[in-house]
Each structure stands twice: as C-alpha cells, then as structure tokens.
Specification:
The protein has 83 residues and is mainly alpha-helical. It has one domain: Hypothetical Protein Ychn, Chain: A (3-Layer(aba) Sandwich), CATH 3.40.1260.10. The protein has a two-stranded parallel sheet with strand order 1-2.
C-alpha cells in the first residue's frame, strides 16, 4: 500500500508538473511490480488530492479504499506497519 495521496506513484508528466523534476520513484515501483509486489493507491486519497486515475503510473493498482484494504489484507494475515 502506498501511503498518503500516492504522490510517489504519479506519472512522470504529472510529477514534473507538480514538482518541476522527473519522478525518481518510477524505476523502483516498476521493479517492485516486476518482482511480484502488489502496489495499491487509495482512490479516495487521490480524489481528495485532486488526482485522476490517469495521473498514476500503470505499475500501481488503484484501490477503492485503503481502510477497506487494511481490513481485507488483515484477514489474510498481513499487518500494516507505518514507516
């Protein structure tokens, strides 16, 4: 789960518009996905921040709600650790 509003998962164009530099996270996110890591971004947080779905890299999955995901993944034995 990508915390916050998913800023590190923005497409390069969207990231560049907001921060005036290329998104340095994209290569790592892609490598994580290729390695089998499921990356989720909360659509509610995205909407609150004013980002559309096409503002996110295709390497992430847009989830309906992070709060729901925590419950679902918790039932599967995962735990949430804020870093």
């Amino acid at each position: 789960m990508i915390a916050g509003q998913g800023l590190l998962a923005l497409t390069n164009a969207t990231y560049r518009t907001r921060f005036k530099v290329d998104n340095p996270n994209l290569a790592l996110l892609h490598q994580l996905k290729v390695s089998g890591v499921q990356l989720l971004v909360c659509s509610q947080a995205m909407t609150e921040a004013g980002f559309a779905e096409d503002a996110m890299t295709p390497d992430v999955t847009i989830s309906l709600s992070a709060l729901t995901d925590f419950a679902v993944f918790g039932q599967q034995g995962y735990s949430y650790m804020r870093l």
